[in-house]
Amino acid sequence: MKLKKIISRSFFYIFSDIFSKIIPFAFLPFITNSLGPSEFGSYSIFLVTVLAFYVIVGFSTYNYLNIVFFSSENWQKVLSQLLQFWVIGTTIIIVIAYLLNIETLYIYSILAALCMWIFQMLIVVLQFTEKILQYAIFQFIRAVFISLSQVIPIFYGFSTSEDLILSYIIFWLILNFIVCINLFKNKFFSIQNFDFNIIVESHKFSLPLVINNSSAWVRTSLDRFFILHYLGSFSVGVYALGFQLGGILGMIGLSLTKSFNFFILKELGNKELNAIQKERRVLQLIFIVTLVSIVLFILFILFFKYIFTYFFDYVNYKQSLYISYIIAFAFTIQTICSCLVPIIQFYRKNNFLIYSSVLIFLFSLVLIFWFIPNYGVIGAAMGFLFSWIIYLLLLIIFVKYIFVKHKV
Predict the structure, then answer these.
(1) Annotated domain spans of the chain
(2) DSSP state, 61?
């Protein structure tokens, strides 16, 4: 596939992702101003708890599905096996948790994580089967559903974090019902007898990625619990808003990498290209992502203050603006990191992801313990930034090593 065609298709995926994610951000001023920092902080704690379980539920096996597809194996069988295994397994866990009177927050979080994983499996399939229109439609539907789950309760006077949590679960269940219909209709999924070789192989492949994602969760979410402990839910709300606003660049970066990484893997696996051509094509794609990310960060710094002061409660959320600048820079670096990881995955050097993730995990804990008690919410943002800088340096060194070893 020519580079020009790759870029044009990538930007279609990017813009469909970005457009779908603008919708929740559009309602953020209404939500934060209606809830106030304390209730918004409590709701944010639930969301990061969901993300914690999302690391475990599904075991990041959507990455394995990508590799299977490009290896020309029976990916429909793999998809069916993984969906059956995790839906049945997670349902059993939820029932046991309920019988043991585990706190409802955790039960809801596990259920939401399962719904998110199922949706992500569909998105992966729609992308590599190049069903571009369906991909865009489902991204849009998800954005609308998530927004409605927050706006509708507040609009009707249910303005507590508990109300939003219950609404969030209900809307995700409805969305997953639609997803399951699509999987059956397109014959992506069929009920089969368990093939434990597939289950074992997929989870063996994904174990390093789970550790890597766990480390990422520590960098992006664990600080909320420390802020809650040291500073209270009001500060969690202030930090959460700043993190979400800075996360606008993370959202765009994720859209960039989700689109470009597909073609990075495709170029690496292209047998029609020689080693030098593969290296050049991959580096061109990474350069494009890096350049776009830096330009967007500069624009964010220059203009976002005017948007913030107009739409948000500046009195209560003043620090959120400064936090957003730091977080935006961190997500710019994260975007570059996300373009390097698929190269490591392609050559199945996932052990490096384990070692680097453990190292960054420990480094992040040190930063959290030191910065939050001493520097408050600004310190939490600085710790997040420093952890991504170190991770980028490690990835650059190792990818260079892979290029030299494999003469890519």
Answers:
(1) 3-406
(2) T
